[in-house]
Amino acid sequence: MDAQPVGEPSVSKPWSVSAKVRGFYDDNYNTAPSNPTPGYPYQKAESWGFSVAPSIGANLLRDQTTLGVRYDFDLRWYEARKNDNLDMYHSASLKLAHQFSERYRIELHDNFVYSDEPSVAFGSAAAPAVFVRTEGNNLRNYGGIGFNGSFTEHWGYRLGYENTYYNYSQDGDGSRSALLDRIENKVTVDFRRLIQPTTTALVGYSFEDVDHTADSYLIVPAYAPGVPLSNIPMSDFRNSRNHFGFLGLDHDFTTQLNAQLRAGVEYGDFYNAGENYTVPYADATLGYKYAEGSQIQLGIKHGLSATDIAVDYNLSGVTLAAESTTLYAGLSHRITSKLTATVRGQWSMMDYRSTGVGYGGQTDNYYSADVSLIYTLNQYLAFDAGYLFDRLDSDVPNRTFDRNRAYLGIRATY
């Protein structure tokens, strides 16, 4: 097994603590558009700053039961932001697994995030729903439970339930809450066939209910003078019931190279809007550990996702969702016994689906990349440095932006 990175809580010890202290530079902390229209409230601004990010983790390992808990906190101070120069990020996670016997296993997980910057961890299964910064705190909780069982030596099944809750503090008509506050409930069942010790094939079905909870108008009524309130859509106009049918394959080519594939069809029924969409569904990953401390991961996701784009000011249509494609890749390479380099990249394309005209057929292309170097002094201390790039190219006005960030810091783990 590869060594635990310095600066991260260890999963091989009963408990551990860690911390990262960094100085950074951010050239667009507002994620403001590159060419805003006159009067747009957010302008591009840059700032130096520092961050302090402690973490604590605990693990319980027994013959049949494993339990892991972790808490992460990240405090960021921006020198140039005079009125609100602090961002805070909280994340608490729990993982529990119990093996009843060789044939039955149950797994439970939960992750709670409370953050000033929703783009950090508020994406959907297929793509991020939010790219731009929103003033105020934002909450997301993602939890689930899965039960794995076997009928025979070669035939098995899995039953799963997932719940995701989103709550944005910016409320009122046309706000983040109006656009994105929601509860997602998803149930999945699949049947599996062990073809050989390294290959499992499966067929499955998922049902997902998406309930937008803000009870607000998707646009500020004053922005649509002369339009009766009854003609302005509410948040729940974008509710949906989604059905997924898929085939899957899990295969270990070697002990270092493995792949997982889920591919099929997604049907989204937006029943309040009287619209439905059928799109391809895909979720595939390929992982390769080619040396000690070095690995590559590739992946692709495709499906319908929530979006903060909703109503144009002409009220010519309502954007219900985006058909999203996300490609991502990551490389971690141990250059020497003390120096490790990491490179990651992602591209997401969102093709908007709307009633009427609206933003239907318009697209967003989001690109992100980051590179980092970690130099390990000893088992407790390491230096790290990195650079992050984000760019959004959008057909929607006041949305295209780019952002550059760099940091230098030290990590400690005990």
Kindly describe this structure:
- The protein is mainly beta.
- The chain has one domain (15-413): Porin (Beta Barrel), CATH 2.40.160.
- It is 1% helix and 61% strand.
- The chain has an 18-stranded antiparallel beta barrel.
- The longest helix is centred in the middle third of the chain and has 5 residues, at 176-180.
- It is globular.
- The model is unreliable at 120-126 (pLDDT under 50).
Give the SSE layout.
Layout: E1 15-26, E2 47-61, E3 65-78, E4 86-99, E5 104-115, E6 138-150, E7 155-168, H1 176-180, E8 182-196, E9 199-212, E10 240-252, E11 257-270, E12 275-291, E13 294-305, E14 319-334, E15 339-354, E16 363-376, E17 381-394, E18 401-413
Antiparallel strand pairs: 1-2, 1-18, 2-3, 3-4, 4-5, 5-6, 6-7, 7-8, 8-9, 9-10, 10-11, 11-12, 12-13, 13-14, 14-15, 15-16, 16-17, 17-18
Based on the model shown, name its key terms:
414 residues; 1 helix; Porin; mainly beta; 18-stranded antiparallel barrel; 18 strands
Shape: globular
CATH fold type: Porin
What is the helix/strand order? EEEEEEEHEEEEEEEEEEE
CATH top-level class: Mainly Beta
Structural class: mainly beta
Amount of beta strand: over 45%
The radius of gyration computed from the alpha-carbon positions, rounded to a whole number of angstroms, is: 23 Å
CATH architecture: Beta Barrel
Average pLDDT works out at 90
Domains counted in the coordinates: how many?
A: 1
Number of helices: 1
SS elements, strand count:
18
